Amino acid sequence: MTIGNLNELLEDIQKVHIGILGDFCVDIYWLADMTQSELSKETPHFPLPIMEERVAPGAAGNVAANLAALRPASLHCLGIKGDDWRGMLLEEALSQKGIDASLIVCPERWTSAYCKPLRKGISDVIYEDPRLDFVSPNPPSKETEEQILLLLEHLSSSMDVLAVADQFKNGIVTPAVRDKLSSLAQDGLKIIADSRYHIAEYRNVILKPNESECQAACGKNSSLSAEENARELASKCYATVIETLGSQGAIITDGSYLRNIPAVTIDGPLDICGAGDSFLSAFALAVGTGCNLLRCAEFASLASAVTIQKIGETGTATAEEIRALFCEKF
Question: Can you tell me the distance from the alpha carbon of 314 to that of 56, in angstroms, rounded to the nearest whole number?
Fold first, then answer.
């Protein structure tokens, strides 16, 4: 890729109409200053005096934030939330990123949330307590599923590409929704699916697993190489697979041909949290331009290399940041 290619791609992305279907979540950070804590008079514990609260979109919400950062022509969010305080925080966090997300309200579910208590004391060290997860144990109701299917059908004709962020065991992407995605893909809609638990259950779409997800999809005891697992998954799902390998880059295959995409080398401290979301977002937008898949993967590698340098946050990558990194490295 040349700087000319990159600039052209970044311009073309601003003409792309993209959708994000997935498990929207809110990340909540509570920072406690333990130097302000006093022993409780009622219990033998030191409470956590919260001095700072931060809220950010998580899971599919972070994918949406990464998509918005690259300024596509339009962004359609297909997600669900509960009728609770976490749902209000989620939509507010999305709004602050410039995202108009009218999520389906599901009274039978709660809004997914990752709540992260952090402690600091006299030193500068910040210690993270076990995370508090709000994840619905049951799949969406049939009524909610019907709403999702109708929205998918309605929006499919107005999208150039659809990104799927399937994060939870009982999330928005039910078997019926996966069947609908396969049908839409066969009808010509470009779909890129990222799924933590169900990647092997998709058909006819572009799959974006990481190495462990790809191996699990081929059998937990698989002794195959990353390349062999990617080929097997592609053949099994009638799909093109883009398997991310962290510092080793990525592999792209349709089951027969296979190409390696090297990672962008970054020195210094790294934070890989959210790197997969950045890759998915950039890759999907590039696919929406009609760009060839190898260049899409190179562009996605640049975007994720930007975000892993943002310590302590699931950051996003803007066009300006991607361009600056390219000029620095190439």
Answer: 9
pTM above 0.90, yes or no: yes
SS3 for 67-135, per residue? Answer: HHHCCCCEEEEECEECCCHHHHHHHHHHHHCCCCCCCEECCCCCCCEEEEEEEECCCCCEEECCCEEEC
155-177 mean pLDDT: 96
Residue type, 189: L
Predicted local distance difference test score (pLDDT) of residue 223: 74
Please tell me the predicted confidence (pLDDT) of residue 311. Answer: 78
CB neighbours of residue 295 within 10 Å: 16
Maximum CA extent, the chain: 68
pLDDT, tens only, 81-124: 999 999 999 999 999 999 988 899 998 899 999 999 999 999 98
Cβ-based burial of 292 (10 A; exposed 0-12, middle 13-18, buried ≥19): exposed
pLDDT above 80: residue 313: no
CB 285 within 8 A of CB 16: yes
How far is it, in rounded angstroms, from Cα 222 to Cα 263?
25
Distance separating alpha carbons of residues 270 and 76, to the nearest angstrom: 31
The 3-class SS string of 13-64 reads: HCCCEEEEEECEEEEEEEEEEHHHCCCCCCCCCCCCCEEEEEEEEEEHHHHH
Average pLDDT over residues 299-303: 96
For residue 226, CA distances in Å to 7, 211, 231, 252, 314 come to: 32, 7, 9, 11, 26
pLDDT, residue 221, reads: 60
C-alpha to C-alpha distance for 102 and 185, rounded to whole angstroms: 24
Helices 293-307 and 275-288: crossing angle, nearest 10°? Answer: 150
Is residue 290 predicted with pLDDT exceeding 80?
A: yes
What is the arrangement of strands in the sheet containing 250-253, beginning at the earlier edge strand?
A: 74-78, 17-22, 161-166, 190-195, 206-207, 241-244, 250-253, 258-261
Q: Calculate the CA dihedral of residues 65, 71, 77, 81 and round it to 10 degrees.
A: 30
